[in-house]
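Wed. Picked up where I left off yesterday with ITGA9. The coffee machine is broken again, so keeping this brief.
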Amino acid sequence: MTSFNGIKSFGTYISRPLDIDNNKYADFAVGAFQSDTTFLLRTSPVITMTSRLKFNPPIIPLTSTGLQCAISSNGNPCVTVSVCFSYTGTDVPVSTRVNYTLNADTTITGQSKTRRVDLYKATTNHAGVYSSNLISVSITGETCDYVYARVMSTSRDFFSQIAISMDFQAQFQLAETSSGGVVKPVQDANTPTSISDGTTFMTGCNGVCDPDLQVDITKDVMSIIYGQTIDYSFTVRFINKGEPAFGVRLIGDISSDNALFLDATPLLTDGSVQLTCANAMDSNNRSVVHCDVNSVLYQKQFGAVRLRYNVTSAALSKNITYSDLLPYVKLTAIASAVGNEVSPGDNTDTETQDVTFAADMAISGVSTPEQSRVSETKDKFRTFTHSYDIFNTGPSPLFASKVLFAIPAITDTADVLIQTKAYKIISKDQKSNCTIILVPGLHVGLKMQILTQAQTNNAVDVQKIADCKSLDDPKCVVVECLIQTLKPNENTLIDVQFNVTEASLNIDSINEFQFYTTAVINPVKSEFPDSLKANKTAKTVSFIYPASLVTPDQEINLWIIVGSVIAGVVLFIVLGIILWKCGFFKREKKDKIDKWKRQSNFYEQRKTQRLSRLSKPKDDEVALSI
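Structure written out below (tokens, as returned):
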């Protein structure tokens, strides 16, 4: 035997059984050989201690209003857990002491999940494990001790596990020391010292509920314009048409993977239940949005939330090229709950919004040279270059477009301005590919048709114009240039180069010849919904002048001159007669007046007055002398 306080051996019986402590159980003494020590072995009574768990209320309601375990700070579910003890035995003490340890929500914690309740004794929080003090248990009846189990949070996680029972486990032991000299009883070895029991939550269903969730997505009325629209919103609404739904979660997934989640706004003013939304990652490590219902979703209750996404050009084209862009944004919304879904088919909805690529194009042209004068011999070619600058002002790239160039080839008088292969379309930056799609019929039939439509007038015109009235003008060459991707604020340059035959201009009879080319931008059908804000048209003109200006002969009507002379003579005669009748040609009165002036010394008096005025100083002359 292992030495203990000098004891070398043990086991020598030195007495007969004797009830030393008067507890009706025989005791005896045992001596230790060569140790000069005697041990008194007292016999303890054997009791059968039993325990049980009680819950108040028996089923946990989803609100704690009016319950003993309730607190004023929140109405979360709670339950009062009572641990009750009683014991039996022959010739046992009238009371004994026991303590216990209570573990909360053991089924959940056994699955390595977070427990749903905390244990409280009075106002002290003991988290998930409560260890009691010693409790005195009377043999006359059952003795109970109680704690409060309060649900920590009624989040979606809580409601998603509401079908799992709330289980507790209590383990007890008798006090290790006796009191008042009474021998401590011992527990019957065949009676367990631990017990487990649990309760459930009041769901309003017979066991597991059967909800019926339906989801509907509504997209905003505005459109998504690539490069212009910053954010876009979808409104998601889900309603329960079945039994109460617990742990409802709405998952919003941009399945097109080309928009970034910004925020979620529950539409509480519309009657929606409270939602908690956050960005999360799904099982495939993709970004999704979780919107959780923080309460029970009863029949006809609904949730509504506006999900807003970043749809800038940077978000739509993140890590991809233009050729891989998707022309749409697709949202998929899925609602789920604990229980047996009545009709899973309407738990999901999908809505797609097209991405429009709107480009505002500008086109301008310049002629080189702008003007030219024909040679004296009129047998040369005149080379002109009409340079067109095609510019994308945005906001979107233009993935495919075509520019149609119309070049006059035949005049209204059927003169051939441009011979075959006398024109070139040059893409300076190699961003376009050009082909001829319409060549005017230079055969006799067409020339005769034009001749019959032309005016036959020998008069000299001041100017002559070669222009295409439309892209299907039979007198014009039409060239089509396909332009590849043109980014915002990017341009492409295309030159229209042509040779004009001087002899075809018939310029001797005019002072100016105007040669126009026309450029029209048109969209091209592609997999992207391109939208040119307007088809743009530009014209460029070259001025051609003769070697010398032509002064046209003008006819004068001789009868106009003869009539004017006759009218003048008649008017002169009439005016002379009128003056004669008025006495204009009679001068007798003037002779009488002159005779009177001589006889009355009129001239002498006038002379004296003039001399008198000259002899007096003037005011201004005085002022100057000072």
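Quick read: The chain has eight helices and 35 strands.
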